[in-house]
Amino acid sequence: MTTWYEDAFRPGSEIRGKWNGRVYMVERLLGAGSNGVVALVRRGTGRFALKAGHETVDHQSEINSLLAISLTETSFKNFLIDADDMTVGEKEVSFYVMRYIEGMTISDFIHKRGQDWVYVIGTNLLRKLTELHRNGYIFGDLKIENMIVSNYGDVDLIDFGGVTSKGRAIKQLTEVYDRGFWNKGERIAEESYDLFSFAILLLKSLDQRNRFTGLTQTLPQTRDLEQLTAIIRENAVAAHIAPFLHKALNGEFHTSQEAYQYWRSLVSGKKIGPMTLKMPWLKICFAASIFIFGATVYIYW
């Protein structure tokens, strides 16, 4: 059966905004899920990610959240490029356009370069979350599939469907990353919610025996964080960051800034391949990532 988006997002087809009139050429489909379709598109010499939503209300809420954080003086600034409607058959579908980031999942990255890179990736991801939290938002649906790792462990978040204002109910989640699934707290948008997901994300990326497959099939009354300790014990990287993981999983961090500082104290001095991870080196990496980001930003109007 043909899905509603197959013709609209066929490589070489054009997407024309109804209100702004901008035209995007589809290069290829990047993914399709329950809350939308994402395609790699081109306009002029620029390449972008275009996401079209199935449900207008939910998609508009995502656009509003992305617009708000795109106006902040953070690494999310100008992340949102365009927002408009397109016509698919007789149906009007909303879409938005955002920066396109080349990279891979954290699992693929550490498989290729080594698990010690978790120290750098974790630092960069916590910095991203701290920026988001400082501006009043929780990411909500933090998981391996919703982040991209590139360059020297640089991190970008790529799906903002779960972004929620602090204090509200989490609107989108993935069960195994959700503290409610593990009976460790409510599904309320607060910084500790993202930090719990962050800890699960790291454990899943380090889970060489794929233990999570079995854990997700357990009954609610039998789920316990003790089930995760086997993953921590058997992995040298997880064991080193175990104090952080335990605090994050048990909701002991009041803010992501506090978590970020604690993380830095744990990973400083760790070996990454032939290099030793020190705070001055982290600053150099961060400066390099800013330079690379600046070199890829372009104006297409």
From TrEMBL:
<keyword id="KW-1133">Transmembrane helix</keyword>
<feature type="transmembrane region" description="Helical">
    <location>
        <begin position="280"/>
        <end position="300"/>
    </location>
</feature>
<dbReference type="Pfam" id="PF00069">
    <property type="entry name" value="Pkinase"/>
</dbReference>
<protein>
    <recommendedName>
        <fullName>Protein kinase domain-containing protein</fullName>
    </recommendedName>
</protein>
<dbReference type="InterPro" id="IPR017441">
    <property type="entry name" value="Protein_kinase_ATP_BS"/>
</dbReference>
<feature type="domain" description="Protein kinase">
    <location>
        <begin position="24"/>
        <end position="282"/>
    </location>
</feature>
<keyword id="KW-0812">Transmembrane</keyword>
<keyword id="KW-0472">Membrane</keyword>
<keyword id="KW-0067">ATP-binding</keyword>
<feature type="binding site">
    <location>
        <position position="51"/>
    </location>
    <ligand>
        <name>ATP</name>
    </ligand>
</feature>
<dbReference type="InterPro" id="IPR011009">
    <property type="entry name" value="Kinase-like_dom_sf"/>
</dbReference>
<dbReference type="InterPro" id="IPR000719">
    <property type="entry name" value="Prot_kinase_dom"/>
</dbReference>
<keyword id="KW-0547">Nucleotide-binding</keyword>
